[in-house]
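Quick one:
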Amino acid sequence: MKIFLVPNYHSDEAVQSGLTLELWLTRQGYEVSWASDARSKIATTPDIEGSDLVISLGGDGTMLRAARLVAQREIPILGLSYGHLGFLTAASPQERDILSVVSDALAGEMHVSRRATIACTVRATAEDGTEEVFESHGLNDLALARGPLSEMIEFDISVSGHHIDRLRGDGVVVSTATGSTGYALSAGGPIVSPDYAGMVCVPIAPHTIQARAFLTSPSDVVEIALSHDRPSVPACAVDGVFLSPHGVIDRVSVRRGDADVLLLDYGPESFYNSVSRVFYGVRRNDR
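Output:
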């Protein structure tokens, strides 16, 4: 059985816990590989293919990185929290012994939460008139926001061919249910149960009081078309990773991804416990 570790290399505690896990796992006969980055000093890029379990050691950003590495393979991801928030993670060292958590995961004793993803297509036009097309997948969200060279952006937003509105503002976030507690929430969107398979569309600082967040069905496609009446140079990011087209973004489409991300936790109540802890400040021993 192959285990793939994705640590936050900026956290000494996360890296040290990864080393402890590697020693413990190899003694039990598991094959262990580490994800690489600029700080890891791993000369080659480890192959995640064939892994049976991915363990993320860090915060939610590390979990998103693990999800990007897994891509469409649907390998279960266990998140151990060594970050500031840890909303997506299953446990932290302060809550549970990490070896017992990993033991539960390996024994198949943890709940598998299937999380919908998004598939994004970004079309841009270069100065010579040629079209660039970028494809990207995300667990959290796509954010189209005004860049440093534009005061605001104007765009039309449609759902499955039905025009919703033309908006002006700082941009728009299209998120999954998982991403509803991220940028979309900061922009005024709702907290959505992870079982919801549609998308959440939230305008960012719209220049009208009539704009509202709305939810789509799982089969819908959200299209955002930049207005030619008010040219702008927006920035576009999927799960916080910016896309860098050489030209100007014309149109963005977002649909549900073909594969889900499988997160391990201790049951559906884990989500609501996290909501009460992170967003309402409720601690379990406060009750």
